[in-house]
Amino acid sequence: MAIEHTAVMQLRDRTFGPPITNRIYVPLPISSPGGSPMREKTEMASKQLISGLKPGEKVESYFSVNYKKPVTDYKYGAMFEFRVADRSGQVTVKYWGGQDKVAVERIQDSFDREDIVGVVGEVAEFRGQLEISVSEKNGGRIRRLVEGEYDLKDLIKSFENIGDMQLRLGGLVESVRNMDLKRLLDAFFSDAEFLRRFSEAPASIQLHSAAVGGLLHHTLNVADLAMTACELHPELDRDLVLAGALLHDIGKVQSFKVTSNICQTEEGNLLGHITLGDQELVRRMSGLEGFPALLASKMRHVLLAHHGRKEWGSPVDPMFPEALLVHEADDLDAKLDNMITKREEAVTEDDWIWDQRHGRLIYLK
Predict the structure, then answer these.
(1) Residue 83: beta bridge partners?
(2) How does DSSP assign 211-250, residue by residue?
(3) How far apart are CA 278 and CA 249, in angstroms?
(4) Which residues share a beta bridge with 65?
(5) Cα angle value 17/342/326 (rounded, 5°)
(6) What is the DSSP track for 73-110?
(7) pLDDT means per 10 residues in the chain (365 residues)?
(8) What's the whole-model pTM score?
(9) Domains of the chain
């Protein structure tokens, strides 16, 4: 998430956010939260993106719920927190209630994961992170919205050229001359149901190509980058590189789901997309009669090593040039996409933003 900052402060002591005095926000209790907050509003105000929120700013917008936590006690009564998202990022919302714990629990029970909620509150900062504080003091309210009260495009990005990207994918598959690799690619991409799911899947939750169609977009970028490198190094096995580039993230089809937001499936959380991708690759190869054992091992290695390092999630490091190329192309596209998005979505009058994930300042001009 792009956070406005002062570069000098951040370079000196790694302070995040704008130059404000940090303080712990302790809201006044909500003495009578009532049974139906925000019922008087039938339409939400214009959408405020999470990436543009600033400390002290009033919030009146809607978001998708990622998860919520149980009601707990605090100094003035009962409270709970939940995580929300839109197409620009995620943020925590904290609801500060009064002594009537049952009333607070009723509000907490009024919505669930993947619901769309309208939130009125104020942006606060806690331990260097922005959050939305909802309390009677700041006129805060929460309400579950119904269809027609929100625009799903505000919550999830979507590529509009999926059909064109599918045609490009088909052209790359047809360019493969190794008949065993061509059979393998056809086993995936000639499967209409798999192609549909692959084409609709995101490449990540929020890091890169986090959109409907994002996995297809990212895969084509990785393939294009890898093919350019193959032109510079014709001694590489071009077909092995291309097949690896097109299949390296197939596990994300099972790892992610898209509802009102992008989130991990249970399989994705428990096993991870590399393990799921390897399982699917083995399954498809086992159905191809006479598929060479060494080529099967090489394909599995390319997929298993595409994160580049064990500490980054790969069970093995790349051990031959074609595997290294797929990793580097994957890493380059992911990092470029993420940094470009940070620059495009930054809401600040400053020339710089600090990005915690990249661990550096990003120049915006």
Answers:
(1) 67, 92
(2) EETHHHHHHHHHHHHHHHHHHH-TTS-HHHHHHHHHHTTT
(3) 10
(4) 84
(5) 130
(6) EETTEEEEEEEEEETTEEEEEEEE--S-HHHHHHHHHT
(7) 30 32 41 40 67 91 94 95 90 95 96 94 91 92 91 85 95 98 98 95 84 94 98 98 98 89 87 96 97 98 94 92 98 91 78 81 88
(8) 0.72
(9) 7-154 (2.40.50.140), 157-345 (1.10.3210)
